[in-house]
UniProtKB/TrEMBL annotation:
This is ABC transporter periplasmic-binding protein YtfQ. It is found in: Cell envelope. GO terms for cellular component: cell envelope. It comes from Streptomyces griseorubiginosus. Keywords: Signal. Belongs to the bacterial solute-binding protein 2 family. The gene is ytfQ_2.
Amino acid sequence: MLNRRNFLTAAVGVAAAGGLAACAKEDKSSTGTSSGGSKAITLGFSQVGSESGWRSANTTSVKEAAKEAGFNLKFSDAQQKQENQISAIRSYIAQKVDVIAFSPVVVTGWDAVLKEAKAAKIPVVLTDRSVETSDDSLYVTLVGSDFTDEGRRAGKILEKVLAKAGVKGPVKIAQLEGTTGAAPAIERAKGFKEVMDADHKGDWKIVVSQTGDFTRAGGKQVMAAFLQSNPDINVLFAHNDDMAIGAIQSIEAAGKKPGKDILIVSIDGVKDGFIAMSEGKINAIVECNPLLGPQLMEVVKTVHDGGSVERWIKTKEGDFMQDQAKAALPTRKY
Ligand code: GYE
């Protein structure tokens, strides 16, 4: 079981000692000291990559919020490779940062490096994506969305989309999955399937499903192959907007109308997704909020100061149908 208090108490002691030791070192990227004149918290952050609009907005949010909080942020981009994230985390441990935060590209394979962080008494905060671990004490908390619920919401909103479009016959769904092994890919598929199994056993079928790695290029390429193998697809469920946008290009290239011949539901709610929706090409979007920076910095501060935090700090988000897109577009923040 997680013994967070002991872990944190130990972490704070070491963080304070680490802070003193770090004073001697020059740190060019330091963003200054916190208000009381005390040493700024050094946060090592390992980002997944820069695969999507969501990710860019998330990176900006993290960087801005760290600056705002007066933290010394060490940031690295793993280019969607787990081994890069593991080396980044190892380097943060070697640099004796106060807190490590990361958004794990996939769910498994973290125990070894997380044990190293624990042995060095550096608390780890997960953000955006979760991990599977046999030892709960290896991370303090997760700040991020409920992806299973997003999948369920996508299923529910598809019911509305189909009703609005007046689709009567069989629903043949193509699914563009996110990065294989990543929490949002696993859980969004799971939540969507729950709705299918509960209410649409007879009328909906996923006829093809493959990863597009959360990128536009991936979505475009995989959708082109789907249209070749299954030209009768009438619905696309894309695990993110970028893959839906890529897929739209292939749908149009195949002489079909996205949003009409093929109804599209995606997840994220980035600006380009809203633009495609206001053009009638995406039918509905389930929002997944990337602006996690401020909440993350608050948690990092609490953890660093030895306070207790919830095990999972969930993000709040909404759902949008096509007829809301134009009105919502100017107010979208990412
Ligand atoms: O949906 C996708 C990004 O982990 C929630 O990763 C995030 C996902 C997001 O690449 O666009």
